[in-house]
Each structure stands twice: as C-alpha cells, then as structure tokens.
C-alpha cells in the first residue's frame, strides 16, 4: 500500500464499498455525535466523511485531532446508513470506518477558519494566504483560472497562433503608467524596466518574419491598485498578426473570447454577434468607453427642448457653444421618493443635484423642471425618450467632455436602482474609432490618448493635414459588462509615419530613435502591416467566476498598498546590496 494514499478524498464511490483504503488530507471539521466521531477529510480533489467509533483502535488519537491537522487514515469503505447520504457531495453515498490514524502535520490555532466562507479582514487573509487558499470558493476560483488559461491557449493554437516568450528585463516604454525599474550591477547608473506589456517585442516578432504570435504574458506597472486592477503585476493574453486589417483581427479574436466565455459562463447567455460601437457613440449613449450593455438605458441629447425655455438654468448653459443637455431615461422611476433619492446620490457625488421630470397618471409631467418648461416641451421630451406614465427622466447639462463621466455613472445608478440590469448574462462589444490624440491640460500639449504605436486613420496624410484632435486611430477595445477586457490596434509600421506621430506629441526624431531604436531600425528593413491586441486574463477570470475583486482570483496578490504581507515585500535593501548596485537611498523626510 502507498505510504500516504490509495485514493484521493474526492474519488470514493459506491463501487468501492468493502475495500480497505488509505487517505491523507486536512481535517476539514470534527463532529462528536454521542461519542462517535465524524471527521470530514479534505484534499485538493474533494471531501470524504470518516467515522471513528469507540471500538476503533484509532478512537483515542481521533479525539485529539483538530481542524486543519494533516492526517492519514486507513479504513474500510462502507455505505452510509439510510437517510444520512449527502447528495451534494460526490462521495456522499459512502463513508470510511477508520481503523488507524496517523498525524502527519498538526496545526496551531487558526488565525482564520477554513471551514465556511466567513468574511475576514484582508490583512489577515493575505498574511495567511496559504490558509485562505484552502477555502472552497477561493480554491475553486484558482483552479478555474488555470482552466480558463488552458482554454485560451488551446483556442489560440487552434486559430494558428504560435506561443513565444518575450524578455522580462527590458527598456522603459511609454505605456501610460510608471515602470518598475531594476538597477544593473554591471552597468552602474543604468536600469532595466519590467515590461508594462510586450508591445515592442511582439511587433518585432512580426518584423522577424513570424506570422501569428501569442503568449500569456506577465506585465508590470507601478500604479495605484483598485478593485479591477492588481498592484504590481497582471497577466494578459497577448497576440499579434501580420498582413492583417482591423477586421482580420476581429475575426481571429472574437471566436476565442466568445468560446472561452461560453465554456465557463455556467449556462449564462453570451453575446453571439458582437456590436461595433464607435468610441464617440459609446460616450454619447452610455457615458463610458466600456459600457455595460446589460443596462438597456440609452442617454439622449434633449438640448432643443430646453433652448430658450423658461428653465433658465439650462437655457443659460445652452447659450455657450458646445454645451448640451442630456437625458437619462428612468422607466418605472416616476416616484418622488426615487427622484429625491437620485438627487441625493448626485449631491453625494459632488454635483449640485440631478434635475428630473416625472410623468404621472394622465401623462402630465411633474417636478420643478416640468413646471418651468411647460406641458408641450415636457411631452416632447417624453416622446423622444419613449417613456410612459409612471416613468421619469434625469438631466445633466454643460460641456459633455466635463459631465460625461458623471452622466455615465448616473445611467448605471438608475439602471441598477430600478433593477433594469440583467446580471445573468455576458454582453460583449467592440469599441472602435478611438481618438488618436487627446489634449493634456496639465502640460498644455497634444498627447497620445491610447497606444502610441497604433496606425492613425488616414495615415501620414492625416498627421500632416488634419487637426490632431480630430484624428481617429485604428484602435479598438473589447468591453464586457462594464469592464474593458481587451485593447489593441493596427500598428503604425512605416518609420516616417511613426516619427510624425511622435512629433505631434512633442517627441523629436532623435528621441524616437533613442527610446524606440529597435523598432525604428526594424521598420527600415521591410516591415509588414500588422496588428493585434491584449486581453486581460485577470479581469476575464474575475467576470467568469462572479468575483468583484481581482484578489479573489489571484493566487498570491498584494494588498491595496502594494505590499506582499505573506512574504514581507517590499523590504529595504542591505548596505551590501546597495553598494553592489552603486546606489544610495534618499528617503522622504517623515
């Protein structure tokens, strides 16, 4: 017999009855029923009930075991007594009558329980992550993550992609966040950077004559953490293709992502044919470039109904060119209590309030705005929005560039409060036609709005002859249920176009050569048209497991302060380490 086990704790079934078996695992819990001990024994594969009665040679030792002790049990498999079966367990038809117990690893008093799913402080959970990971839900999430990554690999290879690994120690790149720098010991005063993404390398792979690349790539960004972004490192399904246009990338990626969602959605509906939504339309209708399409509400411009009206607040706002009034429909929200609640919420968001109109029985509008603009304008708004008695509409006014984020949040709030959002589905969409540049108010200059290596629509001619802020890019995102889960673009593969694009953002040709010399040189020697994208593995897993925080799907995450409480990182370097790296610290004053 094997030293530790003949079977796993999730393996035994009715056809094993009568066999003598050996199991090893963790004591999930111990129950004493009138002198008879019931030990639930757990391992990676499942859980088996073990019975130890006073007649067993193992009883005396069995009385001493506690939760999370690691033990070995020898015993006979038998059918559970009628009425005690557990249909929720795969092993629930049988139990083991223990004849021998060996303690393999006793456990100290637990800082958090493994049995159950109680909520514990994050600091405790991360410091004792090895215990936290024993909990059923988290353990299942980590295994699901591995299965999702396996499925991604299989589907990518099925689409003709080849897996390559790109360097981790590399040069700094403008990806929109701070780099993690690694000092070089043998090159004093110089630093490597951990890759924010394999962007340049994957394009160089296309320059090298390979056709379809992918990898599950670790990426590193020194940015503030939040619920949908882990501090430090994250993983993405990274891919690139040669001799493609935008539609070719869509045709390759869409079945991979759809297939992964369908495989792990647990029966929830998944979008079959993804809509293509231009960035400007997404912002206009949903107030977000990653709209949650499970929410049916669509915002509309209702400026004309307020222009020259007696509602002076909005009428004066509209006297400024470019200002607008947007309406957020609120089906079934036409009660004073709900409208007041939304107004209070808006004030909590730092707004002066949230104007509204309610439509009462008979179709007449009610509320301060309705009283000011009159029944004719109120009826016209209702007709435009397709509303009826018992509904409401909420209004935001001013410069759309300033209020769009709040408008999107208000749309989300109305949809959730009125229970209009179908949470049991996955709605996927392409967001296309992103602006190539944006205005950097802080530095008073044009800046890249997305990926600086993307191809501007219109190419070199657009860069030379068009207002930079009107140029669109061949850039695209995948949105799912209010999250951006992927981003990519068709690349700028002509050196003169690349130089001009960076010039408009304030970089001269020598800076481009200095910072992106490898790519710049590669473009001189026959660069194929190419494009690709990267999908966030962590966010996809978070969505598919129904989690709300990335720490629930990552095996050893950091806390919100970017600290690894389990390993104690980051730690100060020793004087010897600093000396070897030719470094000296200059700590901020307390």
Broad structural category:
alpha+beta
Structure annotation, total helices:
17
Gyration radius, to the nearest Å? 30 Å
User: Residue ranges: pLDDT <50 for 5 or more in a row?
Assistant: none
Biggest sheet, in brief?
Answer: 8 strands, mixed
Can you count the beta strands?
Answer: 22
Q: What share of residues are in beta strands?
A: 15-25%
Q: Would you tell me the overall average pLDDT?
A: 94
- Note the overall shape: globular
The strands making up the biggest β-sheet line up spatially as 6-9-10-22-21-20-17-11
Set out the fold topology.
Layout: E1 20-33, E2 36-43, E3 46-52, H1 59-62, E4 70-79, E5 94-105, H2 122-127, H3 129-132, H4 136-158, E6 162-163, E7 181-183, E8 191-193, H5 199-207, E9 212-221, E10 232-242, H6 246-264, E11 276-278, H7 279-286, E12 300-301, H8 312-317, E13 324-330, H9 336-348, E14 355-359, E15 365-366, H10 368-385, E16 392-398, H11 400-417, E17 428-432, E18 437-440, E19 445-448, H12 459-465, E20 475-480, E21 483-490, H13 495-504, H14 509-515, H15 517-523, E22 530-536, H16 537-545, H17 575-580
Parallel strand pairs: 3-5, 6-9, 11-17
Antiparallel strand pairs: 1-2, 1-4, 2-3, 4-5, 7-8, 9-10, 10-22, 12-13, 13-16, 14-15, 14-16, 17-20, 18-19, 20-21, 21-22
Helix pairs in contact: 4-6, 4-16, 5-15, 12-13, 14-15
């Amino acid at each position: 017999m094997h030293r530790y086990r003949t079977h796993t704790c999730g393996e035994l079934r009715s056809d094993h009855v009568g066999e003598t078996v050996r199991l090893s695992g963790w004591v999930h819990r111990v129950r004493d029923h009138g002198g008879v001990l019931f030990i639930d024994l757990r391992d990676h594969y499942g859980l088996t009930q073990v019975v130890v009665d006073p007649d067993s040679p193992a009883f005396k030792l069995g009385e001493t075991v506690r939760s999370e002790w690691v033990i070995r049990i020898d015993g006979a498999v038998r059918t559970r007594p009628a009425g005690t079966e557990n249909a929720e367990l795969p092993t629930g038809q049988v139990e083991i009558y223990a004849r021998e117990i060996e303690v393999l690893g006793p456990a100290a008093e637990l800082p958090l329980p493994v049995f159950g799913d109680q909520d514990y402080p994050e600091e405790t959970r991360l410091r004792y992550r090895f215990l936290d990971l024993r909990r059923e839900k988290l353990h299942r999430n980590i295994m699901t993550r591995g299965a999702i990554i396996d499925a991604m690999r299989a589907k990518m290879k099925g689409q003709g992609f080849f897996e390559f690994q790109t360097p981790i120690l590399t040069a700094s790149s403008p990806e929109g966040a701070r780099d993690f720098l690694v000092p070089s010991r043998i090159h004093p005063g110089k630093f490597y950077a951990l890759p924010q993404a394999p962007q340049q390398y994957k394009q160089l792979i296309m320059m090298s004559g390979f056709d379809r690349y992918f990898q599950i790539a670790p990426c590193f960004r020194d940015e503030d953490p939040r619920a949908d972004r882990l501090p430090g490192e994250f993983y993405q399904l990274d891919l690139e293709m040669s001799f493609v246009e935008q539609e070719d990338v869509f045709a390759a990626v869409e079945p991979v992502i759809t297939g992964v969602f369908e495989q792990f959605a647990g029966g929830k509906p998944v979008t079959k044919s993804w809509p293509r939504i231009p960035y400007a339309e997404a912002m206009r209708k949903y107030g977000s470039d990653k709209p949650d399409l499970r929410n049916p509400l669509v915002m509309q411009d209702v400026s004309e109904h307020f222009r020259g009206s007696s509602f002076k607040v909005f009428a004066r706002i509209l006297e400024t060119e470019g200002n607008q009034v947007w309406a957020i429909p609120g089906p079934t929200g036409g009660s004073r209590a709900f409208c007041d609640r939304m107004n209070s919420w808006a004030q909590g968001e730092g707004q002066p309030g949230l104007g509204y109109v309610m439509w009462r029985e008979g179709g007449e509008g009610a509320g301060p705005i309705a009283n000011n603009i009159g029944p004719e304008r109120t009826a016209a708004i209702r007709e435009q929005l397709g509303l009826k008695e018992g509904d409401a509409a909420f209004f935001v006014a001013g410069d759309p560039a300033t209020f769009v984020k709040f408008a999107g949040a208000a749309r989300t709030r109305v949809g959730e409060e009125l229970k209009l959002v179908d949470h049991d589905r996955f709605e996927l969409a392409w967001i296309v036609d992103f602006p190539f540049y944006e205005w950097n108010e802080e530095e008073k200059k044009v800046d890249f709005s997305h990926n600086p290596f993307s191809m501007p629509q219109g190419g070199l001619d657009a860069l030379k002859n068009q207002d930079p802020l009107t140029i669109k890019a061949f850039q695209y995102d995948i949105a799912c249920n209010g999250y951006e889960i992927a981003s990519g673009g068709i690349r700028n593969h002509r050196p003169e176009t690349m130089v001009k694009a960076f010039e408009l953002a304030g970089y001269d040709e020598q800076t481009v050569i200095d910072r992106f010399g490898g790519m710049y040189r590669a473009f001189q020697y026959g660069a194929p048209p190419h494009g690709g994208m990267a999908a966030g593995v962590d966010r996809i897993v978070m969505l598919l497991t129904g989690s709300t925080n990335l720490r629930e799907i990552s095996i050893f995450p950091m806390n919100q302060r970017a600290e690894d409480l389990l390993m104690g990182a980051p730690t100060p370097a020793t004087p010897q380490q600093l000396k070897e790296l030719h470094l000296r610290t200059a700590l901020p004053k307390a």
